[in-house]
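Hi all, posting the design record for the shared folder.

TITLE: backbone redesign
STEP: 1 of 1
STRUCTURE INPUT:
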């Protein structure tokens, strides 16, 4: 049973919570019917955006051509993750959308890479702090996501209680495209989008993140993080309740597990590859990525007694108000649109706060 703090158990940290239970098809039907209007508008918005961004590169996409482009990905999902496929298929039927339209929501960032669009990655900053540096003695993971303000209405916390497999809780866009979350198996995951130039027809990195969440164990989560080929790129992060951790950097056809020579030191990642192997296939650079990495690394180099509230302050959130006083290297965005998630896989707690709403950092427990 999940326990939520805050005055409204259906809105946590300013983000709506949706819970589903049952088989993959039952959960998909519930999500599709409940989120139908949002899914229809979001898929149309992203389709228009993708067609516009692809045009300078010589891709004259129509809605039909875009669906034809996405269609083979359905087969990849069906082969590699049949339960995710069944959920998506039922969700599409209930929302009265073609499955390819839902796949577009999942794979939007990857498709920008695949089509060679000159669009930088959506900014995000990842931090992991080991157990020796936290007040609770539990390792923590955090992701701060800098979101297009047009997408804020689609932010959704999704809690799945499947008939078989671990319960999960993750941050999504209308139930799709998870970016971070945790599971009943004591695994926390997160993703930084990377723009790459070697995208290949295959998996979407958001599906890999969703697959990691359903893993029975940490080693299996690492295996799932490395499945390929992929349309785009990402840095996928895993943290176990015991404090084990990994970061895997992915391009379309390259997979690199980053070395972790000092596992007791805080780890930071943003939206550019740190591996020399991936640098030659790195796509359009995110202009604030390196600055954010340097700023956060400087912030966490000598921390001790870290709490979720302390992490919130690292990202410029005022604990007493709904505003972000200092927004690292991102002052050109108006309004500033941030959502911060802090995960504790040992206690199975997710702490969340978004900018622009009066709520503070709030907690939900699996």
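Okay, here is what came back for every position:
SEQUENCE:
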């Amino acid at each position: 049973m999940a326990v939520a703090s805050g005055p409204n158990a259906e809105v946590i940290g300013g983000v709506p919570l949706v819970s589903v239970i049952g088989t993959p098809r039952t959960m998909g039907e519930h999500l599709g019917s409940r989120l139908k209007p949002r899914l229809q508008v979001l898929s149309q918005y992203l389709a228009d955006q993708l067609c516009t961004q692809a045009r300078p590169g010589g891709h004259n996409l129509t809605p039909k051509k875009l669906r034809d482009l996405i269609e083979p990905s359905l087969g990849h999902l069906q082969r590699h993750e049949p339960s995710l496929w069944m959920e998506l298929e039922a969700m599409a039927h209930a929302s009265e959308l073609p499955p390819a339209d839902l796949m577009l929501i999942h794979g939007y960032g990857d498709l920008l890479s695949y089509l060679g669009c000159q669009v930088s990655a959506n900014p995000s900053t990842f931090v992991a702090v080991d157990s020796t540096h936290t007040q609770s003695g539990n390792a923590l993971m955090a992701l701060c996501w800098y979101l297009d303000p047009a997408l804020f209405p689609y932010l959704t916390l999704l809690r799945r209680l499947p008939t078989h497999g671990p319960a999960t809780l993750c941050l999504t866009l209308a139930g799709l495209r998870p970016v971070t979350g945790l599971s009943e198996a004591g695994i926390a995951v997160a993703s930084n989008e990377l723009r790459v130039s070697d995208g290949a027809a295959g998996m979407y990195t958001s599906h890999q993140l969703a697959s990691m969440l359903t893993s029975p164990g940490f080693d299996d989560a690492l295996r799932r993080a490395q499945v390929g080929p992929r349309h785009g790129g990402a840095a996928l992060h895993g943290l176990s309740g015991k404090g084990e951790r990994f970061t895997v950097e992915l391009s379309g056809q390259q997979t690199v597990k980053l070395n972790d020579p000092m596992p007791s030191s805080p780890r930071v990642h943003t939206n550019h590859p740190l591996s020399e192997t991936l640098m030659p296939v790195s796509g359009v650079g995110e202009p604030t990525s390196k600055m954010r990495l340097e700023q956060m690394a400087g912030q966490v180099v000598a921390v001790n007694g870290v709490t979720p509230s302390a992490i919130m302050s690292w990202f410029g959130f005022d604990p007493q108000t709904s505003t972000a006083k200092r927004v690292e290297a991102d002052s050109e965005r108006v309004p500033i649109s941030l959502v911060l998630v802090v995960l504790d896989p040992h206690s199975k707690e997710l702490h969340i706060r978004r900018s622009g709403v009066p709520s503070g950092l709030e907690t939900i427990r699996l």
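COMMENT: Residues 3-114 form one domain.
Let me know if anyone wants the other runs.
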